[in-house]
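Progress report, Aim 2. The chain analyzed during this reporting quarter is listed below.
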Amino acid sequence: MSAPVTTSTAQPASAWAPLRIAAFRSLWLAVLVSNVGTWMQTVGAQWLLVDRPNAPTLVSLVQTASMLPVLLLALPAGALADTFDRRRLLIAVQGFLAAVGVLLTALTAAGRMPPALLLALTFALGVGQALTLPAWQAVIPELVPRAQLVSASALGSISVNLARSVGPAVAGVLVARAGVAVVFAVNAASFAVFALALLRWRPARPETEPAPERFSAALRAGGRYVRHSPVVRRILLRAALFVVPGSALWALLPLVASRRLGLGAGGYGVLLGALGVGAVAGALVLPRVRLVLSSNRLLLLAGLLYAGVLLVLALVPAPAAAVAALVPAGLAWMTVLSSVNAAMQLFLPGWVRARGLSVYQMVFAGGQALGAVAWGALGELTGLVGALTAAAVVMAVGALSVLLWPLRETRGVNRDPAIYWPEPNLALEPHPRGGPVLVTVSYTVRPERHAEFVEAMRAVGRSRRRTGAMRWGLFRAGERTHGFVEVYQVPSWEEHLRQHGGRLTGADRAVEERARALAEDDVRVNHLFPADPD
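Predicted structure tokens for the chain:
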């Protein structure tokens, strides 16, 4: 939740503007507290395992157990957040997380926390986080004006990274002086703080709201949107190419601290604190940097910087050098992930925002979870030096790939809802869930415009698929010399009415108008329904 993919034109001071909105400020502080608790939980769980047999694998599995639920559940969680009341969903999930945190605290205090149970409860906390992330990120545009959305994203990144700075340091002190159970108790309380802030928030509701989508239909619609959106797919690719090698640092840092640098829990907290400090500092200076560097140039430099830090950790076994190197690593981590996260928030239309963000979370969490397992296993085989060196090479190659697969330019793309299709004029009354529905659109195009029209209709086809069509095709009419027929199929009449009622954006309208401008005025639309077998 941080910065856009494009070079910012806003003044740096605007980064703090959303905090002037009381509802955003209250929830942002509550999320900060919750993020601090989450980082404390991670440190406590990992530190319980550093002295166990097969520690590299077990410590890495803490990250896997917390991130794997996001990979498995993010898309269903996004569908829930787009289908049900997001505030109520978030409150219920925080209650579940608090209950798991209390159980974790009690069992740890009683000395009944074997590694398998610790990982299972960590997985349960990850389930709650998987349900929280898309709903919370989709709520942010309800709290701030669109003009402040990038600033709100930057503040979200500051929250995460400030928590990364404070949480591990506090956890290290508490582990050393009071034990891991106290760390788990603080995390349980942090979920209650977020739930109370949500209870105090009373969002305004529109007088009329569209009927919620059915869960299964919403799930399929979200998948179709991402599959047929080249901009979203490129954002996801850039995130994956950074997160997979970047996860080596988070997975192996506890072992670097204890085995390579000879540090205790407090020293490990200092290392994580250095990462957090770098990330917070980066969030503050990034608006100025964006005035002189493009987003793709930033991604390239951040990836190469992160690769250099991995090499320092692998080759220089000195605590001071590690702390100094981790500050720019935090800056690089924040630069890349805040950029791609905000790019998703800015590009996705409101009707599918939580589902699109959930796919981003799947890529982010999956890259961390699977990457952590891979780097942990490689650490077992080759040692920490070999694993970190390999991760540095993969990170550098991924950073250089931005020259081949850059983030796509989206400045000037209209993402506001556009309701411009005329109401269907039908002689029958179809059932809302009846279908599939076949829509045909007939065009007449002059011969000199045929090639240009076919090319323009490719973009129309992507728009149809993103907003609900299962299939789409453009055909020549055999009975008419210059006739074209667009055919697309939607799963139900209800789904097609959602295309009429708000799924299309200003960009979709521009694409369609560009194609229709190449045709004559006699465009005809027909809706075909399954024949009654009786």
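DSSP finds 15 helices and four strands in the chain. Confidence is low (pLDDT under 50) at residues 1-13. These observations will guide the mutagenesis work planned for the next reporting period.
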